[in-house]
């Protein structure tokens, strides 16, 4: 099967609160750099523990909120929507001046769009370790609150311990609560087969370890392993890079930050090296 040179397959989940222009950012930036793009919705999400999350959000017990993905922000919004109407005003009153720590510009953009609030920070961080170190620096430099209350960390059911262990090592307490499960899209196999039946993308970009796992599972079920040798696999961030390596795939490039420009630069840098 022929490979469409310059074609990029984005294995990316769409955030419910992501504005349309935000979703188009990757396509716009990559196409302006001379690539063509196709998007593959790989994941779906099941929200859990929302009642418990809602109870925590309306307690004045925390010094900040950690959001490591758009889904975390969506869980916060959904938990409030499922409660009494007055809970949202209490939430806004409690959290409006507290820091909302976010990984990457997409998470911050979604949180701003659906939660409002005021103090968003840390979005320059590309992964949990970077954000945790940012939080430690911020909280240690806050002279007005030497004994800060814990942070609230709503996260994925399969979240790694990186955030927890790094913060604990820095002397910062937090409460971790799983609020969503990550599942494969119900139409993943059909969608992927349709894409691969036309022409192979030259580049396949993965945004999470879960996307790596589910896409490679489909390829193996279809006994299409030979196709892997013809495509170049790109990771968003070091955690996804590690997942590709563990899946036995050769990593062509890694975007160190979860944003369109970093991805475009990573691809173009590899072309320059040729």
UniProtKB/TrEMBL annotation:
What role does this protein play? Catalyzes cyclization of the linear tetrapyrrole, hydroxymethylbilane, to the macrocyclic uroporphyrinogen III, the branch point for the various sub-pathways leading to the wide diversity of porphyrins. Porphyrins act as cofactors for a multitude of enzymes that perform a variety of processes within the cell such as methionine synthesis (vitamin B12) or oxygen transport (heme).
Query: What is this enzyme's class at the first EC digit?
Result: lyase
Q: Which PANTHER family match?
A: UROPORPHYRINOGEN III SYNTHASE, UROPORPHYRINOGEN-III SYNTHASE
Which segments constitute the Tetrapyrrole biosynthesis uroporphyrinogen III synthase domain?
25-263
Q: Name one Pfam family in it.
A: HEM4
One GO location term (cellular component): cytosol
* Superkingdom assignment: Eukaryota
Transmembrane regions listed in the UniProt entry: none
Instruction: Set out the biological process GO terms recorded for this chain's protein.
Output: heme B biosynthetic process; protoporphyrinogen IX biosynthetic process; uroporphyrinogen III biosynthetic process
Pathway per its UniProt entry is: Porphyrin-containing compound metabolism; protoporphyrin-IX biosynthesis; coproporphyrinogen-III from 5-aminolevulinate: step 3/4
In the record, the note on similarity to other proteins reads: Belongs to the uroporphyrinogen-III synthase family.
The record's catalysed reaction(s) read: hydroxymethylbilane = uroporphyrinogen III + H2O
| Organism in which the protein naturally occurs | Neodiprion lecontei (Redheaded pine sawfly)
Q: Do the record's keywords include RNA-binding? A: no
UniProt name for this protein: Uroporphyrinogen-III synthase
Q: Which gene encodes it?
A: LOC107221419
EC number(s): the record gives: 4.2.1.75
The molecular function terms of the Gene Ontology recorded here are:
uroporphyrinogen-III synthase activity
């Amino acid at each position: 099967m022929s490979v469409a040179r310059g074609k990029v397959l984005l294995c990316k989940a769409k955030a419910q609160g992501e504005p349309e222009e935000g979703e188009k950012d990757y396509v716009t930036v990559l196409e302006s750099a001379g690539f063509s793009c196709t998007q593959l919705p790989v994941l779906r999400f099941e929200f859990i523990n929302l009642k418990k999350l809602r109870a925590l959000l309306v307690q004045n017990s925390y010094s900040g909120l950690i959001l490591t993905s758009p889904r975390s922000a969506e869980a916060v919004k959904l938990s409030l929507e499922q409660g009494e109407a007055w809970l949202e005003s209490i939430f806004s009153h409690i959290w409006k001046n507290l820091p909302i720590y976010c990984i990457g510009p997409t998470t911050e953009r979604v949180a701003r769009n659906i939660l409002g609030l005021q103090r968003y920070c840390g979005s320059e961080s590309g992964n949990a370790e970077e954000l945790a170190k940012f939080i430690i620096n911020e909280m240690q430099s806050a002279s007005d609150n030497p004994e800060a209350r814990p942070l609230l960390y709503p996260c994925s059911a399969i979240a790694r311990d990186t955030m927890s262990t790094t913060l604990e090592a820095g002397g910062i307490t937090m409460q971790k609560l799983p609020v969503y499960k990550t599942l494969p899209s119900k139409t993943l196999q059909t969608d992927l087969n349709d894409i691969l039946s036309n022409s192979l993308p030259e580049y396949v970009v993965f945004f999470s370890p879960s996307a790596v796992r589910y896409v490679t599972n489909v390829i193996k079920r279809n006994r299409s392993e030979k196709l892997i040798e013809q495509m170049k696999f790109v990771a968003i961030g070091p955690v996804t890079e590690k997942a590709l390596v563990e899946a036995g795939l050769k990593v062509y490039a890694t975007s160190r930050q979860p944003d369109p420009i970093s991805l475009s630069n990573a691809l173009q840098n590899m072309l320059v090296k040729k």
